[in-house]
Design goal:
166 residues, two-stranded antiparallel ribbon, 4 helices, 11 strands
């Protein structure tokens, strides 16, 4: 199993505020959908709530929750921990599993992740309340990156970078 993290982060590592994304960049949403479709996604309960409380289509959805969840939606598996979530996924042919948030789940997943799919959004969000951990260059190397593009709606520059563990 290749443990991957997918996230969009601001220059100050901000990823969210009040359980919501900080921006809507259509191309990033497309990248997320193309990258994760057909692969399992693992997320915390708050992230699941932030996406509408419904499973993402064409993906095995595992939600981490430390509380009992008697009315879970169809198409969702519930795990008590990140390790249990990894054990529950139906690993696809390419072997990739994507952790998609939130902040605490990323913090737990980073030490054992194999690959990072990071959208670097070139802005600083001062009032964010959720941040991604530091990507240590002693541990991670850039596998690929795209040229910087500019989102026409927000005006933010962004690029897609894939990191692999050294």
């Amino acid at each position: 199993m290749e443990k991957c993290i997918i996230v969009a982060i601001a220059d100050n590592r901000a990823i969210g505020k009040a359980n919501a994304l900080l921006w809507h960049i259509a191309e990033d949403m497309r990248y997320f959908r193309q990258t994760t479709t057909g692969s399992p996604v693992v997320m915390g309960w708050m992230t699941f709530q932030s996406i509408g409380g419904k499973p993402l289509p064409k993906r095995d959805n595992v939600v981490i929750s430390i509380f009992p969840w008697p009315d879970k939606p169809e198409g969702v598996k519930v795990a008590g921990s990140l390790e249990e979530a990894y054990d529950m996924v139906d690993v696809p042919e390419d072997g990739k599993v994507f952790v998609m948030g939130g902040g605490e789940t990323y913090r737990q997943a980073l030490p054992t992740a194999d690959k990072l799919y990071i959208t670097h959004v070139h802005t600083t969000i001062e009032d964010a309340d959720t941040f991604f951990p530091v990507i240590d260059p002693a541990i991670w190397k850039v596998e690929s990156t795209t040229p910087v593009a500019v989102d026409p709606e927000t005006g933010y520059g962004y690029e897609f970078t894939i990191y692999t563990r050294k």
